[in-house]
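Supplementary Note 2. Why include the ligand at all?

Several targets in our set were suspected to adopt different conformations when bound, so apo predictions alone were not considered sufficient. For every target with a known small-molecule partner we therefore ran a joint prediction. The input for zinc ion is given below.
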Amino acid sequence: MVHGGSDRLLAAFLAGDLDPAVARRWKEHLRECERCRHAVREDRDGRRAARLLRRPAPPGLAARVCFAVEMAAAGRAAAPWQAGAG
Ligand SMILES: [Zn+2]
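The joint prediction is reproduced in token form.
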């Protein structure tokens, strides 16, 4: 497979949209091509990170954040993000 112009193939492969025969050839290409392998790895890492970010907050987090904000507000005349506004 020719490497040049493979970005669209790469995108289709990552989306799972490749024809099985093309996908097989693409995987063979990945074994030989460091650049495309790297792109696939980066995409997968990015998707994994995005999945982690979409996880719902653990139970009790909102209450802990509220408590921390109240403690900070009680300890200072103004919270750091309010000081020096303007
Ligand atoms: Zn390549």
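The mean pLDDT is 83. The pocket of zinc ion is lined by residues 3, 6, 29, 33, 35-36 (CB under 6 Å). Comparable summaries for the other entries are listed in the accompanying table.
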